[in-house]
Amino acid sequence: MATTISSGSPRPSVIQLAIKEKAALYAAYISQFTEGGIFIPTSREYKLGDDIYVLLSIPDDPQRYPVAGKVAWVTPPKALGNRTQGVGILFPRDEKSRLLKIKIEEILGANLASDRPTQTI
Question: d(Cα 12, Cα 29) in Å, to the nearest integer?
């Protein structure tokens, strides 16, 4: 998973997240959020509710999806269970994000019911 963070001002951040493999998408996708969400590994400090603009690329899809999300949880450095430091971004309640959620869930298919560990909840 490649993460590039660039920001001209402190808020909102702009993050480009390219997820190239289905296993990485499974580990990052947050199906527990009604609107869907994505985990972003980052050492930058965020607070709950911070706005983050994500340009998301998913496996086998040339399109980049813009998501104006909010930080819904924070995994701090040195978290228990060797969890990766980063933030969980809640997708906004809009049509573009609803379609992105459907697309991600189509890619993951039966994997959504798996009990394999993820970066998320």
Answer: 21
